Amino acid sequence: MAGIALQTFRMPLLVRHIRPLGMILLWLLAVLMPRESPAEDGTGEQIYRQRCASCHGAAGEGTSEDYPRALTGDRSVAQLSRLIAKTMPEDDPGTCVGAEADKVAAYIHEAFYSKTAQARNAPARIELSRLTVRQYRNAVADVIASFRPVGDWDERRGLLGQYYKSRRLRGGDPALERIDPEPRFDFGEGTPDAEKLEADQFSIRWEGSVLAPETGEYEFIIHTTHATRLWVNDNNFNRPLIDALVKSSGETEHRASLFLLGGRAYPLRLEFSKAKQGVDDSKKNQTKPPPVRASIVLEWKLPHQVAEVIPQYRLSPSKLAETYVVQTAFPPDDRSVGYDRGTSVSKAWDQATTGAAIEVADYVVTHLGELTKARDGSSDRLDRLREFCGRFAERAFRRPLTDEQRSLYIDRQFEGIGEKDPEAAVKRVVLLVLKSPRFLYREIGDVPDAYDIASRISFGLWDSIPDQPLLDAAGAGNLGSREQVAAQAERMVKDLRTRSKLREFFLQWLKVDQVPDVGKDPERFSGFDGAIATDLRTSLDLFLEDVIWGETSDFRRILTADELYLNGRLAKYYGADLPSESSFKKVAFEPGERAGILSHPYLMATFAYTSTTSPIHRGVFLARSVLGRSLRPPPEAASPLPPDLHPSLSTRERTVLQTSPAACITCHGMINPLGFPLEHFDAVGRYRSEENGKPVDATGTYQTRGGETVTFNGARELAAFLASSEETHDALVEQLFHHLVQQPIRAFGPQTATDLRHSFAGNGYSIRRLCAEIVASSALTARTGKP
Question: How many Å from the N-terminal Cα to the C-terminal Cα in the chain?
Fold first, then answer.
């Protein structure tokens, strides 16, 4: 017993000595014996959890300030694998290669990185949204406009000029009537027409409409030494914008500003009088006074640009009705996702809608007779006012009123005060309607009815309310199929409001919507000034309008066309053959070298520094906008290498030198080779074959999402690739969808983007048809994402 007891007592001591020894042996075996790599016996998920999750999060969501961004993007599996092999893990790059990199790349791509994975993990839905600032202003303008005559912006261009023999414009028929192209005249000491008008005394009235291309503050400027007046957006001619009918001697310039909505034509009247100011000697047979020179020029200054003569293509001799423009300031909309969204409501926005509603109510009451056709004191005036209020509410709500709504919004507001103070009742209706969620919000219900579909079409194309034909189609049940919606969209896409919205999109797509500063070093680029920059922007405008609204509307021409719109001033600066006073003309300029917007001087000047080009800026534009690639901001800001530090290097060589570090090349390996093919065009967009005495190297490459490496030399080869690339088409479809619909494209079904790209190709890459298809594909979708 004693022996057994002793043995039992000693066993724990032995175990205590054996355990440490065993652990040491096991550790030695683990270190010294060969082991299989995770790539051989581990899945991509296991590798990710072992080596990546601590920094990037279990689902790629990011974990700290050092890794805050989610692992999402648009690289293919092969591209991800190469990136991982080259740069990951960050503390020991190059240790996850080969099969390991392939496995973990495939897992990341499938689990959370790709667009498909993102759509699966966080399904998008059509969001309840308020009106954006643009939509609010346009909607109010069109509600008011529905009570005024509808004008037509026809094909004629210029202003109707009526020329009178006397210095007064009242009474009698004009001695001469004609359409003048632009409000820029120098009559010298003579007369507009020697047979019909005397040189010492005549007057002129120009009338028509002026089209504002964008929303903002417009400054109108008249240059003349004689009497003049100007009205803009005033049908009754009660409030001259500029009144210099009686003016001080020596005054030659008159200015005034006006806030206008883009995509709308406004009535314009300009009056001019040449005579002996302040003296009426018409009844005296006196000797004629000595000859006096006479001239007049009407300019405008668009938002953030320099003054220019109002061009002919922005003028029409047709006189359209005035447009009510809300003047209340609104806070800007959220554009963090690349397009305007109305998904958040702030106190400032709510206050702005209240201020705007009061402003509109005051305007309606001031113009009540014109809008309602109800005369003061007439027996049916009260009935007409109630009828007006009902129509006002229906137009604002984009649908007929129910009995309950009519009682709330109309009848109750007239009870008690309608007969005593009908103007107060009208004001109450307007305030109540414009503060109602039925006006301010969209996408309220889960399943759209016919009137919701009508609103989706009109807000998609016009950023405004449906017109009467569209409401009639909704009421008749003619918006239930894709074909019916497409037919309405085809009709509406020709409207000026669609033109404005598409213009805005392409300026955003080209990253010039904010009117960039394109100032250049005057020593290197003498003569490049604000007037040249404004002309270049006009040139770009004309080019886009020509392509979009031309016969085919072929998007590929935006990238491949070899024509430019030049006037005399631009032709002189860029070396084209045009008379110095020439207006804008389409010119085949440097054929074989230029390629649409890729080489347009305005874009080349925008994506350049003050004294040198910038392959980086140009490459980023091509990668993000044209190809739709996701690029993360650089880890830290870096200034370009000054040319003076490396005077013997070309811009391309300096760019390669600056971006060669491993931290840069991940993105610049794609950016730089896209920007280099545009190096034939200097910082103001002039063609060059040499830089610093060296031939320009304009070769470049691009690795597609499918892993194919494409090479090109110069702008035209790059343009040919981009015009035919499905990546370019996908990017355009998605970005245009977001701009028109202002909802995530994924909310309308996983196949929507692909289907739209196929129809885009099937329709010959027509931009106009794509707009109609986008509206047709989105209008019938429920908020659940299903038709």
Answer: 88
